[in-house]
Amino acid sequence: MPRPITATIDAGALAHNLEIARARAPHSKVFAVIKANAYGHGLMRAATAMSGADGFAVLEFDAAVRLREAGCRQRILLLEGFFDATEARAGAAGKIATVVHTAEQFDLLKVLPAATRLDVLLKINSGMNRLGFSPDAVRAAYTALQDIPAVGKITLMTHFADADDERGVDWQMETFERAVNGIAAPRCLANSAATLRHPATHFDWIRPGIMLYGSSPFAETPAAELGLRPAMTLASQIIAVRELRPGDTVGYGGTYRAERTMRIGVVACGYADGYPRHAPSGTPVRVGDRLSATVGRVSMDMLCVDITAMPEAGIATPVVLWGEGNPVDDVARAAGTVSYELMCALAPRVPVIEKIN
Ligand SMILES: *Cc1c(COP(=O)(O)O)cnc(C)c1O
Whose CA, among 29, 90, 242, 281, lies 20 to 30 Å from 65? Predict the structure, then answer.
């Protein structure tokens, strides 16, 4: 029997979560965001499971090319645009739509053959202050894009910084509306949080990411309450059991000290598998069909769980680090991070099992 750790990717959950996004924005087309290897779920696997999407958004040029070469017929969008002329030429040939967020990127489009008809998303900085044209530069950028022969359809785009919290989207929508005032073009604005909470942002295209993977964009709302199903389950087993006496410590640095007699299980999963090293003692772990918690520091290949109250637990008892029965959002919260980081960090050494149902 090999080392027992696995990541199960549930294709049915991906398809289901895509339908939840569609149901929330029934009049919009969907760019399923599958950047970063589909948030750790596998680019081609996710694209296949979500083949009902109208398009796919990625960041990595080679991912866009791989999708096209694999026969993907949907729209493909590059979220940071082309980085050089080679990408622009190959992208145009592969009909890969691109974000344009700086005037410098115009030059890459100007040298493309006039017959190209490349779809472009004009990115507007409405307050996130990351990528995009300043509101007062949008009209000139739009006109300049229209004048480039290779440019086909132009879609207006912005990205929300606070769609998941109390600050919301209104302040950015106001800036966006002022910036694009009078420009009649399709719009692509909403991430997962805006898809779920702010219908006024839906327009022509939405760009959900995290919700497709079964994680909630909202700190206070569990994914299950939104009807989402976990797409990734990181599971392993207990490979050794220790009895602790009061005063015994666990793991590197002895950060956990037993105050009473305890039983702990050593689990075959560590930070080299993608489990966050900074997860403190008390991070939720499902052991068998009950929830328990980690004890001590996470090491490279192992972590420990408290099984004092679980006499039935022992060697080979299954453990869910996150996923089915142990929401990734709960683990992320305990570890002081977000589900995005946990899922993206799934290590290549973890064997992936594809669940198709
Ligand atoms: C990653 C990303 C998204 C998806 O965001 P989620 O919070 O995962 O829904 C949408 N738009 C852009 C520009 C992104 O970079």
Answer: 29
